[in-house]
């Protein structure tokens, strides 16, 4: 029995175990969405914006390690997919995007809504093609799926509007198997790395997401080398909880203990990370880098020994070779500084912090002591959330507060736009995460700027009855941009947001909305939000003048901040 192109696509997605397809319906996609309508295992999730659909598909792929799927129809819908697809591509997660196209007979005539999809997706996709004949299937679909999974990237298949309903002449079974593999370096390379480590003095590990599946091996290596473990943000998940070696993050969102561990090492061992910020790598260190993607090695910092392989088998090979360390002073020093920093952070988040002398000085300067400290909000959410909760976070200050005050203990998961750095990702990623498991708590740390950018997909949450908890850090600012301007000595400009009452907006949409305007109301609001069985928008007015001090603040940054504040006050007086 023959199948149509659309039916073949949907049957194949079912065979792959895909459960949701995200998108916005439209004429060129009608044959495919109709096939989904009759599917027993595949659900269409109608989003209000294709960007949200792509973010949701990418989130499902990251959390389930399977293929995410999204759709956009003809030119406008395809263009809207781009940002979410770039996020998937830079996150290294497989996503299949199905793009509708104008009728094949009109392609190339500048037809209404026509866009050259193969050109549009050239940079973002590891594979892209337009189905111009049913005879190309199922082979073209097999190549697209295998490429997306094998290269962990985005594949785009474009289907003209008059192709989806045509029958596939060679209706054979679709073959999709992709065997995984683990790569181990050759023995001479492992021997060279072990010699460098043994002769390399103090060792610090910089651990990234690529090491997440090898937690126990990496912990054993840290113990063997008495090495503090600096985590990238994406390695919080998997390495933060119950880890006596970790000292938090480095970089702008980092802490002094991690900076100390990096600066006082003689040798750095990079495990499964492509941490991009060159300024935060100390100079003059010996470096061993392990990464399965060879082109990642050495592009951030000069590398003495490059091991292009998987972290797990590589670390196990090193454990057979490196000598145990008796001297643990380097590790103990970094851990002591980390403990001291954590105690200071807890004081910042404690109730009544602003009522002391420091708080009175602060309030005389900025008159914002009645607003909620973002540190307190993040800490309260951390305490209330389940130990298997899924967290998403918007790029900007919401991620800063999550990185410092939310511990990825238990089986918690964490995703965000940590490579692309897009705004507006947290809420749609939470949609994808919650649909994977409606019983598993999903918490989105939303910036007010990010939430408002894709605000329409609150209606998707309502329509799908998803019990997502959206925690809005409502400082009425583009907070990270404000901080960047002030550290450079520039007065704040263009960052103020004229926000609505997000809780009232949620209530108008049939979602529970809770607004917090004073710090003393926070505990009760957190309790109500997490006790509610349905979706909640927790809109918390936070202090826009809270700053996140980087791991190694410079005198230049301090002067820049002081100059900016003076300029802001003069501008305020002048107005």
Explain how this protein is built.
The structure is a single chain. The termini are far apart. 41% of the residues lie in helices and 15% in strands. Strand 14 (390-393), helix 15 (397-405) and strand 15 (413-416) form a beta-alpha-beta unit. The chain has 22 helices and 19 strands. The protein has a six-stranded parallel β-sheet, with helices on both faces. Strands 15-14-16-17-19-18 form a six-stranded parallel β-sheet, with helices on both faces. The chain is of the alpha/beta class.
Can you give me a brief rundown of this structure?
This protein is 41% helix and 15% strand. The chain is α/β, with parallel strands linked by helices. α10 packs antiparallel against α12, α14 packs parallel to α21 and α19 packs across α22.
The share of residues in extended strands comes to: 15-25%
DSSP summary: helix tally:
22
Question: What level of helicity do the residues show?
Answer: 40-55%
Strand order of the largest sheet: 3-2-4-5-7-6
Low-confidence stretches: 357-367
CA gyration radius, whole angstroms: 25 Å
Structural class: alpha/beta
**Based on DSSP secondary structure assignment, what is the total number of beta strands?**
19
Distance between the termini: 76 Å
Q: Shape from CA axes?
A: globular
Question: What is the averaged pLDDT score?
Answer: 92
Largest sheet: 6 strands, parallel
Seen as an oligomer or otherwise, the chain set is single chain
